[in-house]
Sequence to fold (309 residues):
Amino acid sequence: MKVIDSHTIGEPTRIVIEGGPDLGNGPLCERAAKLNAHHDHIRRAVCLEPRGHDAVVGGLLVEPYEADCDAGIIFFNNRSTLGMCIHGTIGLIATLRHMGRLSTSFCRIDTPAGVVTAEVDGNKVSVTNVACYRTHKNLSIAVPGYGTITGDIAWGGNWFFLINSQGPAIADSTARELTLFAELIRKALIDAGISAIDGREIDHIELFWPPSDSKIADSCNFVLCPGGAYDRSPCGTGLSAKLACLAADGELEPGELWRQASILGQVFEGSYQLLEDCKISPRVTGEAWITGESTYHFDANDPFAYGMV
Ligand code: PYC
Fold:
């Protein structure tokens, strides 16, 4: 198996470019289900120790299903497959460029969540995400040790619970404290039977606080991903969910810029266009850098050839 590693302002992406499983040529959501059901050892081999670590997001580069797409990608992390991943898509574009497979500055990428597009300008990549929307505003839940916490539920290519200025402040806390707080919220949502559309788990928790420097960002976030790792980047699908909330509240006009800082202080730029039914089309801009290329070996006697569970 051959992989190419990159990071998108701190968040790692590992794209499998050769040696992945044969998932057939159906729609990408069907292929992602097959990957989960029959080839989970591939996800584990790529993301888990000893080759990976909790923050690694992997991506299986595949042929697209949808017409006119340049590539297909199925993202996954230390827990399962992901619907969409914007930092990963920015990493994918850096990878395709590194492989000499990016012949134009515009491409269409097929994903299990739908088709996204990417525009390349130097090292900057702007991803136009699938349609995003908010389903709930000001939903209150009891969180042990913190009392009542209020947040919104929105789809940004993954499901998010978004919380403004509650719990430990990002500026004053360690990632560990923020992780514990976000884990409590995720558990409280499950315990209260609160889910997204079709009973799907709200598996990403996103905390927002004012930025430490309002000259470089409009907001700072901390995103807990399913699997328990936090996003080192400002999380592009999380930013898409945030844009859906800002649009629904009338706090950001179509085309207006929103600068979202991560816990590391690095910024994604976002904006949106209005679609029908109060949905939005978010556009997120960021940068990625190639960090390495590897060939993986699978020894039949290696007890951890497919990752440490
Ligand atoms: O950038 O969309 C993103 C993302 C999702 C999970 C980790 N990063």
User: Anything to note?
Assistant: The pocket of pyrrole-2-carboxylate is lined by residues 11, 57, 85-87, 225, 231, 233, 235-237 (CB under 6 Å). DSSP finds five helices and 15 strands in the chain.
